[in-house]
Amino acid sequence: MLDFLKRFAGNRGAVIGALLLVVTLLLAIFSPMLYPQSPWAIAQRPFLEPFTTEGYLMGTDTLGRNVASGLAHGAYISLLIGLISTLVSLAIGIPLGACAGYFGGWVDDILMRVTEFFQVIPTFAFAVVLVAILQPSLTSIITAIALVSWPPVARLLRGEVLALKSREFIEAAQLSGQSSTTIILRQIMPNTLSPVVVMSSMMIATAILTESALSFMGLGDPEIMSWGYMVGAGRTVIRQAWWISFFPGLAILLTVLAFNLIGEGLNDALNPRLRKRG
Amino acid sequence: MTHHTDTPAAPSAAIPIVRIEGLSVALPEGADRPYAVDHTSIDMYAGRILCVVGESGSGKSMSANAMMGLLPEGVRAVKGRILLGDENLLAFSEEKMRDIRGRRIGMIFQEPMSALNPLMRVADQIAEVFEAHGLLTPAERQARAVELLTEVGLPDPKRAARAYPFQLSGGQRQRVVIAMALALEPEVLIADEPTTALDVTTQAQILALIRKLQVERGMAVMFITHDFGVVAEIADDVVVMQCGQIVEQGPARAVLDAPQHDYTQRLLAAIPRLTLAPRAMPDFAPLLEVRDIRRTYVSGGGLFRPVRRVDAVRDVSFTLGKGETLGIVGESGSGKSSLGRCLVRLQPADAGSVTMEGREILDLKGEDLRQLHRRVQMIFQDPFSSLNPRITVGRTIADGPIAFGMSRAEAMDRARALLERVGLNAAAATRYPHEFSGGQRQRIGIARALALEPEVIVADEAVSALDVSIQAQVLELLDEIKRDLGLSLIFITHDLRVAAQICDRVMVMQQGACIEIGPAHQIFSAPEQAYTRSLIEAIPGRARDLAGQAA
């Protein structure tokens, strides 16, 4: 574990990513204290320029809502959606992929055809359709993102399990009378952990992007302030008031970048042999 | 180029072509020792084969890598000189070394499949050697490639030149690698375990080829190996290495016949003997009856491809007695592993029957099959992939008994007892596999197989991945445990020496069929089949019978 941390800390990008993430997390946690007022509340005159008025560091939007407050509250929503939708898609993808890889044969055929059915639909279009059908809400957005992002998890797990299945220790476990469930859970799963961890961090980044895109198109939960909504709401006035869409856009960029950097760092730290490429 | 024609007996009069002087190669911090190679001096003479022998981790490959300037990252030559003629190779720039490689020093690697580019035709790969040094025209390169392939004895060299590596056999691939190494007529050839991945008959051919080419070209050859049989077969001079240091060096005959250093003596003594006294053959009560077992692999069968059938095991029959050790020997692809895996039901058999005390075991399913595994267990070949890296050793051993309903505490007690039984510390139970050496892991594998108190154990190449001294210890352990517990053992191996040491009876397999079966001493002293004879004759160092002299 210590060794792992040392390798992770040796990667400058990963450390920057982790720092960015910590900042976002703090922002999300302390947003109710920093900005107790609802981010939807009209607080000042509209189109207040950034860095001019105290308490309105990032200015106000077209209706006079505090951009900085929206940013802080949006951080919470972005992280929440990223995390939960990733957990849900892992919960779908991991068992499916593990069963397909371990049992093979017709089980594999059926599960992989189902997976491909989801894969052939362009993910974003599929997410838009799902949210439109389910009515925009936090739950429906999470459901939609999870439903479009599990197939790669299933495929990854299937590949890992296929590779592990032929290892001698799995055969030895079969010979020692362990049931298939025990073998999958105890012998195989712990060995697939590192690629799954790496993939999850990348998936969180994608989920945040997808949520922003959905909100940008007006398919976000109308109750909650999110970065994507802010960019979308500010886009019509981008020439007069650049800051309204710029700051939330920057927030999305940095958060997604943070998760990607962390993913890279985890990958290098968990697979030290792959690190020195070329 | 120097073409010395030394008389093999008097190297001291000649000038060495390569002179390694006081070479020290430092390992990165945190390695098990500070130097991979510690203050080593070796002289190589034109026209002589120098064998560097040692167990894994002894630093034998590192000295060769240092000579080629191909040390792994983090590993540096810190002291000494490597003189080729009168130039110090260690002082050369990377660019200069590139010119030396191939042109003046050629190298042959252990695994010919990974030494060749799988997507390039053989002739193009040889032509690349000339291209890298800017020699000849493209047409000349191709012609020279065919010449070289002829020289290394490939049948139909023109066709081989157009082939891809996967279309050639292991021995043929190694010939291609040799052709590449010799393309620029280097004065020095380094061969790093070039026959370790090959079958015994192929190995004999490759050794003969290297000897022939070396004599024809008057090269100096450094031949790195762990196998004293190979040394006896090919060496003029021998260097024995242990933990990065040379413990003994001298002419082959002197080192092999009268080893001075304790370590050399131990290594030689560890080689299993081939000359056997007839063993007492008690009347084993039959335990396992195998009748006409057959295993066929079917592949292909697409729209445009014909179905390919390979008979891995063809109608093999034998009886295994209670307490007996039956050796199954054969070259790779002879079906011995498939047979073993059918017996433990890791693989289905396509026909035939296997009965254990009168009960058919080939069609057992579900719970019955699970119960069978209490009686029939397996020891695997690869000590590195046969243990789950994420599970403690104790738990790995205890998993079996737990699966059969033993309480966790009791199973862990048994695991600790078994670890002591196989010569490890009971405290090892809480550690993970990566903390153990190959030999220790194989002991853990044995403990795991014993955990369910089986009656039959199938050991598939159980000692093939181990060094010879470790191999001897593990074999001794297996034999002892087998006697104590009255186990029956099916011992699958490609190494006839190992089979000779441990088996009561030996079965020889060729292309899936059993061609000869009988008491071990009879198979080795008076083989009936020509194939068995050729296998025994191909054992390196057999003529000198190393083991007999060392004992």
Features:
heterodimer, A: 278 residues, mainly alpha, MetI-like fold, B: 551 residues, alpha/beta, 3 domains, six-stranded mixed β-sheet, 21 helices, 20 strands, globular
- The SSE string of chain A, one letter per element, is HHHHHHHHHH
Question: Would you tell me the structural class of the helices and strands of chain B?
Answer: alpha/beta
CATH superfamily of chain A: MetI-like
CATH H-level superfamily of the largest domain in chain B: P-loop containing nucleotide triphosphate hydrolases
Shape of chain A: elongated
> What count of domains describes the coordinates of chain A?
1
Second rung of CATH, namely the architecture of the largest domain in chain B:
3-Layer(aba) Sandwich
Contiguous runs where pLDDT drops below 50 for at least 5 residues of chain B: 1-12, 547-551
Largest pleated sheet of chain B: 6 strands, mixed
Report the radius of gyration of chain B as a whole number of Å. Answer: 25 Å
Strand order of the largest sheet of chain B: 6-7-8-3-9-10
SS content category of chain A: mainly alpha
In the CATH scheme, what's the topology name of the largest domain in chain B?
Rossmann fold
Q: Sum up the overall morphology of chain B in one term.
A: globular
Tell me which oligomeric state these chains represent. Answer: heterodimer
* Percent of residues in β-strands of chain B: 15-25%
Write the CATH fold name of chain A.
MetI-like fold
CATH architecture label name of chain A? Orthogonal Bundle
How many angstroms does the end-to-end distance of chain B come to?
44 Å
Mean of residue pLDDT values of chain B: 86
